[in-house]
Amino acid sequence: MMLRKPGSGARQQLLNTNSTTGSDISISMVTSLTRSLSQEFRSAFANGIKPSRAAMGAGKLAPDFCTLFVQVWNELSKRATTVPGDMHIIMASLLGFNTEPLMRLTKSAERMSCILRSMDGIPMSLLFNLDGPRHNPTRDHRDRWLPLYPSRQKLAFGSTFTNLRSIKDDLYLPNNTVSRRKVAVFVCTGEVDPFSSCTFTLRDTSSGEQYSVVVHRPEGEMDAFATPDIGPYCVALQLEPELGNTPEGHIVGLGAVPRTFAGALFRVRRVVTNVRKLYYHKLEAEYENSFELIEDEAYGHTDLETASKRTPNYLDGNLASAFSQHPRGILRTVYDCPLTVSCGPNSSGACSPAKEGPTLTAQPLPETWQVVLEREPPTYPFPLPSRPHFAEAMTPVSAYLTVTALDGLVASGCAGLAIAICATMFPRLALLAKAAVVAKLLLHSLFLIQMFLFPGVEVRLIWDVLHLALVALYTFSRISSTGVARMDALDWSFIANE
C-alpha cells in the first residue's frame, strides 16, 4: 500500500521568531495564559513534582515529570499565542522551572533544547513528530528531531520503561519487555538503499512480515541526509497509538484497511561492542531482567565528535553479523526524519510492497542490544533552575519577614483610617478618643524603627498589645460618648482593621 508523500503545504515551517518578552504587554500576556493553564493542571502530581537535580547524568528517570511534560505539550498544542516563542516560557513555567535564564535565549531551538536537557528523561513520542516544525530538518546535524515548539500532533503518554533516558549527551532508547510492546525497532541488515528513496518496503527476515514505509523529508530543499553515506537504516515504529490513516490507493470495501503507524528513521554511525550491562533497580517482578547498556570506560574519554565518526566495522550492510558475534552492544545513531509505516490489518502483517523504491531486509533489534541517539553539544547553560516549593522556600527568616510585611500592610491601612478620622471628625471626638488616635499615629510612625532596630518577637508582642489597648480605649470612648447606634462606618472600619 502506498501513502502519498506529504506536500510542502502540510509541513510549513513557522519562523524561528525571537520572542521579545521583555515588554510589559508580552509579560502580561504570558502571565495571563500561564495562570489560565495552571487551573487545568491542578492535580496531585502536577503541583508537586520537580525534576531531580541529583539525578542529572546518572540516568535516573522521573516518570511522573515526563507525564506532566506530555500533558503540558498536549494542552499547548491546542492553543496559539501572539508570539510562538512565548510557548517555551509558558511550558517552562508550568513545568516548575525558573524562566529567567530561558528568556535570555533568543532562538526557539535553544529554548526547547534547554527545557529538554533540564529533564531527566524525554517522552519517546517526540521522535514521531510528523507535523510540527523541527530544527533545521534538512541540515547535517544531530538535532534534526528537535521540535521548535508544541505542534498539533499530540504526544503519547510514557512511563519509566518507554521514555528516552538522558545520560550525558546521549539519549538511550529503551529496550525492555514493556517498550517492545509500545515501540518496535528494526535494523536494516542487508545492503543499504543506494538512492535514499522516499518510499521503500521493509521486510522482516525473522517473521517474513512486510511494511510499506514513506519517508517524510521537506520538499523544496536538498536534504543533506538523503544519501547512503550517512549510515544504515534503523526504523522505529510507535505501535500505540496508531495513526488511523487510510493509505493512498486503498478502496473502501475491498479488504480491511491496513494499519498505519508513526515512525522515525535513524542512521547508524557507529557499532559499539565494548559495553557494560546495567540492570534496573526496584522494579516489579516481571521486569527484573530489564537493563541498559553503557559504553565501557575505554570510551569514557572519547569526545562526542570522535565518538560519532563512522567506522567501517559492520556499517557496510552486515549488521546481522555484529548481532550474531557479540552478545550485546550499542548502535550509536543520529536522527534522520519521521516516517509513516503501514502494514496488514491482522497479525500476519501481510502488506503490498511499495510500488516505488527498493525492498530492504531488516530484523528486530536484539533484546540484548540498545540504540543510542546522539545530540549536538549545548551552547547554553543548563539545566534550568527549578522554582523552590513553597514548603522549601518558607524558612524561619522568610516566614518572619512575611508576617512582618503583612503586619506592616495592615498597620498602614489602620494609619490611613486614623488620618481620615483626624481630617473629618476629630473636633467631635471626646478627649480620650483624640488621645488614642494621636498615640496610634505616633506608634505607626515608629514602625520601621521597631522592625529593624528591635526585631525580637517579645518587642513585637508588646508593640501589638499597645496597638490593641489604644483601639480599645478609642472604642470605649466612642461608645460611652455617642452610643453604638451613632457610630459611623469610619469608626467601625478603624476598629475592625486592627
Could you walk me through the main structural features you see in this protein, from its secondary elements to its overall organization?
The chain is an alpha+beta fold and 498 residues long. It folds into two domains: 8-374, no CATH class; 394-497. It is 32% helix and 17% strand. The protein contains 14 helices and 13 strands. It has helices at 24-38, 63-76, 86-94, 100-103, 108-117, 179-182, 304-307, 319-325, 390-393, 396-424, 431-445, 447-453, 457-482, 489-497, and strands at residues 121-122, 164-167, 170-172, 183-188, 199-204, 210-215, 233-238, 259-272, 275-279, 291-295, 329-343, 359-364, 369-374. Strand 2 and strand 3 (170-172) form a beta hairpin.
What are the segments in which pLDDT stays under 50 over at least 5 consecutive residues? 1-23, 35-63, 281-288, 298-309
Give the distance, in angstroms, between the N- and C-terminal Cα atoms: 79 Å
Q: What is the CA-based Rg, rounded? A: 33 Å
Q: Specify the helix fraction band.
A: 25-40%
β-strand percent reads 15-25%
| Topology order in helix (H) and strand (E) letters | HHHHHEEEHEEEEEEEHHEEEHHHHHH
Number of helices: 14
The description of the largest β-sheet is: 7 strands, mixed, barrel
Mean pLDDT: 74
Computed structural class: alpha+beta
Biggest sheet strand order reads 4-7-8-11-6-5-12
Q: What's the number of extended β-strand segments?
A: 13
